[in-house]
């Protein structure tokens, strides 16, 4: 015989929910759960409404474009300066000749004849190579002080040119009094597209 306390006839104990009643914390039918949308409602989360997406800041883009513009302007300015100085293919032959003369004399002033000869034409370099040991020693010990004020009266004839260098050139040779000049005539020739000082007798006209 079945015990009436078992099965469907069992009475609920004190503190236990009765059959058909929802347990604590569970939503009843028809009530939306927390964090989920109810009928026709927005997604949960404290009732916050979804707004438009934030606008992206363009500060970084503007800064990048500004830096790029400065770089481009700097390159253009450098190109203009080099062209004015005669150091680009766009410079005139007159400017290139002036630069060749100034570079030669600057090297002569700071490093001496042997170093300056590396900037001269092939004929001048050959003459330096053919110096006797005594002549080379004299070249090595000679000192030159140069100040160029102007390069003028440039005359170009094909791949040859002449120019007048105005300033002060003082040559000091061991055992002799210093020799100072305030102007000198320079001869140049174009080799491989580059103007070079060329003082060798065969190149003077």
Automatic annotation (TrEMBL):
Q: Which domain of life is it from?
A: Bacteria
Tell me yes or no: is DNA damage among this UniProt entry's keywords.
Answer: no
In this chain, the stretch annotated as Disordered covers: 1-54, 174-205
- Compositional bias annotation for Acidic residues: 174-184
What residue ranges are annotated as transmembrane? 61-82
Q: Where is the composition biased (Low complexity)?
A: 7-36
UniProt keywords (A-Z) are:
Membrane, Transmembrane, Transmembrane helix
> Which residue intervals are annotated with compositional bias (Basic and acidic residues) in the record?
185-194
Transmembrane helix is among the record's keywords: yes
Tell me the protein's name.
Answer: Lumazine-binding protein
Q: What is the lineage of its organism?
A: Bacteria, Bacillati, Actinomycetota, Actinomycetes, Mycobacteriales
